[in-house]
């Protein structure tokens, strides 16, 4: 695991160098944070984490570092609706799809062999060699559904349905 990390840091360092940029301590810390996560995160999460471990880093640096990591295929962006995006690391992650809550942005991963198989078939039938694919399902999580129903009940002056 640690070896993988140093290999990925090296990959990132040389990718930056090839574009005439240096792997500053801050950029490497962003990568280390990313490699250490299992979840989906946004730039603010990175900023918060780096602040608590006292790595002085600006918001702009975090955004730029994440953009570089995306170019190196070390992170990928996942849309969670309303123009919001989350990041996730690429190394060590198996292929999966996402379902997210269109209200609060909560995200869940799933992988479904049947869907994967169909996607391959559809590509082949269309004369394409499949390189990559992703899709997101937008939904409403149970908490948001409950909250919205309660709010609606309040606005309309109707009692909230109980026992559901
Ligand atoms: Zn929600
Ligand atoms: Zn994911």
Structure commentary:
The protein is of the alpha+beta class. Helices cover 49% and strands 14% of the residues. It has a three-stranded mixed beta sheet, with no helix packed on it. A two-stranded antiparallel sheet has the order 1-2. Helix 1 packs across helix 2 (25-36). The chain is flat.
Write the layout of secondary structure elements.
Blueprint: H1 2-18, H2 25-36, H3 43-52, H4 59-71, E1 75-79, E2 85-89, E3 97-101, E4 107-110, H5 113-125, E5 136-139, H6 142-156
Parallel strand pairs: 3-5
Antiparallel strand pairs: 1-2, 3-4
Residues 101, 103-104, 106, 141, 143-144 line the site of one zinc ion (ZN).
Task: Output the keywords.
164 residues, alpha+beta, three-stranded mixed beta sheet, binds zinc ion
Short précis:
Helices cover 49% and strands 14% of the residues.
| Cα-to-Cα separation, first versus last residue | 46 Å
Strand content: 5-15%
Mean pLDDT: 86
* Unreliable segments of 5+ consecutive residues: none
Characterize the biggest β-sheet.
3 strands, mixed
**Record field, number of beta strands:** 5
The structure class reads alpha+beta
Estimate percent helicity.
40-55%
The helix/strand series, from N terminus to C terminus, equals: HHHHEEEEHEH
Tell me the overall shape. Answer: flat
Bound molecules: zinc ion
Strand order of the largest sheet: 4-3-5
Oligomer: single chain
Evaluate the radius of gyration: 20 Å
Helices, by number, come to 6
């Amino acid at each position: 695991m640690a070896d993988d990390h140093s290999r990925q840091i090296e990959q990132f360092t040389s990718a930056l160098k090839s574009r005439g940029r240096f792997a500053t301590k801050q950029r490497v810390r962003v990568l280390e944070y990313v490699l250490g996560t299992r979840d989906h995160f946004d730039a603010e999460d990175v900023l918060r984490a780096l602040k608590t471990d006292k790595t002085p880093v600006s918001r702009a640096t975090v955004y730029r570092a994440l953009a570089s990591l995306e170019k190196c295929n070390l992170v990928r962006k996942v849309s969670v609706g309303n123009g919001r995006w989350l990041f996730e690391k690429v190394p060590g992650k198996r292929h999966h799809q996402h379902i997210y809550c269109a209200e609060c942005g909560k995200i869940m991963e799933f992988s479904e062999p049947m869907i994967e198989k169909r996607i391959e078939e559809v590509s082949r039938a269309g004369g394409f060699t499949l390189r990559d694919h992703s899709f997101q399902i937008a939904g409403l999580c149970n908490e948001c559904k409950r909250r919205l129903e309660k709010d609606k009940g309040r606005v309309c002056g109707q009692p909230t349905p109980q026992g559901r």
